Amino acid sequence: ASEQMIEIFHHLPQAKADALKDLVERFNAQSKDAQIVVSQSDWRVGTAPHLLILEGEEEEGFLVGKPRFKPLHALMKEAGVPLQTLRPPAMMARAPVDSKGQLRALPVGLSTPVLFLNRDALRRAGIDPDKAEIGTWFDLQNTLGRLADAGHKCPYTVSEPGRVMVENLSAWHNEPVAAMRGKTMQPSFNGMFQVKHVAMMASWQRAHYLHVFGGKAEAEARFASGECAVIAAPSASWVDFRSSGKLDVGVARLPYYDDFPGAPQNTIADGAALWASAGKKPAEYKVMARFVSFWLQPANQVAWQRQTGTLTLAIKALG
Question: Which pTM was predicted?
Answer without folding.
Answer: 0.74
